[in-house]
């Protein structure tokens, strides 16, 4: 349910764009982002910072798109989000000495370990520092590349092509990056007992 809700604004944006237009799709994107925030609050009694940031970007750029009836504003949304994420990885690592990719990976892996009940005792997952550094730089490069690629496609190709790229291209690139990450950390995952 949570995964579906994560992509709900994008799915509805795409559907409404295909059946109506970019301005209605942008309005739906803003409304579903509000629903996403409400769900996060009622389900977890807290709202992740990233959801607030994504909502603010959608509200500002989407609001300008609707107000001025100019799709150029909404085209910048993905670039602003991906550039912000890329900058966050570098700033957190080299200014605050924190590797956000490592923190996210360890959290996800430990959560998956608990849900799968792979062992009776808690199992702290440790990834080698050089792997975490490589993954942090890899994700920085991917996010920065997506930020630039989005604007290039937005201003080089048709609106239809950009919308299709935003939905399928960005998801595809992200999926491949996640696969590469999983392959890179696979040998550090705990094994099931009895194997």
TrEMBL record:
Function of the protein: Plays a role in cell envelope biogenesis, maintenance of cell envelope integrity and membrane homeostasis.
Family: Belongs to the YciB family.
Major place of residence: membrane
Listed GO CC annotations: plasma membrane
Bilayer-spanning residue ranges: 22-39, 51-68, 74-96, 137-155, 167-186
Protein name, entry field: Inner membrane-spanning protein YciB
Keywords carried by this UniProt record: Cell inner membrane, Cell membrane, Membrane, Transmembrane, Transmembrane helix
Membrane topology: Multi-pass membrane protein
Compartments (UniProt record): Cell inner membrane
Pfam families named in the record: IspA (PF04279)
Coiled coil feature spans: none
Gene that this sequence comes from: yciB
